[in-house]
N-acetylmuramoyl-L-alanine amidase
Amino acid sequence: MLKKTLLILGCFSIVTVLASFTFEKKQKAIKTIVIDAGHGIESDGGYNGAKGSYSYEDEICYEVSKKLVKEIAKEFPEIRIIETRPERTIVDLHERARIANHNKGDLFISIHVNAAPPITQRDYLGTKKVVSYTGKGKKRKKVTREVPQYRTYKIPNPAKGTETYIWGSHKNEDKEVAMRENAPMFNEENYKEKYGDIDPNSPDFIALSLLKTKQFFKRSATLSGMVEEQFAKVGRTSRGQRQRQVGIWVLQATAMPSILVETGYITNKEEEDYLNSESGQQEIAECVTNAVKNYITWLEKQGNQNLNTGQATVSNNDQANMMQFLKQIDEHEHSK
Ligand SMILES: [Zn+2]
């Protein structure tokens, strides 16, 4: 039914997408960038993100994001910058997406810190004689066995490096990370009312995700590659650009190309120090800014190419696909 369709469209800001695509030709490549500092301090004063040996993801995200805002403002004074978490306190994911969409962001950059669980080690200590008895009465027999002895203990996970995520529609891995990133959302009261029934396997959800992915995939993927390129350039361990299907709701919910940067592992001693240092935070901010610079150059080149060949940024083909997609949702609703 149309009503329901419109509701879905509203939820996923497809209207915003359509509008932004229609007018894109006349605009500058990037007018507004949304910076999203992950997590934040809860009302009870507790932290929400990953935990290192002495620091918290929430604080690092905040500090890096502030430096990123400064760097982008310095580099592109004409670009409007919107922060989804301007203070240290937490902002729920729904509000973050609303801020981004309401301000008609052209780019959404979420800053996070990674964590890896400790690794369990097992050392062989030799064997120990263990005596037991079998049978009853006269048949009772003493049995001596050599039982191997082990000592188990946990060591810090050596995982380190950066990863830049984009919304992926055909991969279902990295679930562990996804669950972690999703946790704040599911902790919120009435999350179902706010986010609706998030069933990543529902046809509507998949269809919308596919549409969204198609429209923004290329841009997000391009930028994520550029971010990792910059990290590698300054000697960080780049774990590359990655995709997720679930867990990065905020990337899916923002009607603009969007990336989530995992700036390093808080569970790695060396990287925890780096992530907490002024120079490390500054370096991360500069890497992301340089990537944005390359991205804008790439976008403008694309725009010029399109103009030179007399095409709008969105081809007729894409528009036709979009209309076809809207029709499909409607038909799907009628068949229920
Ligand atoms: Zn995080």
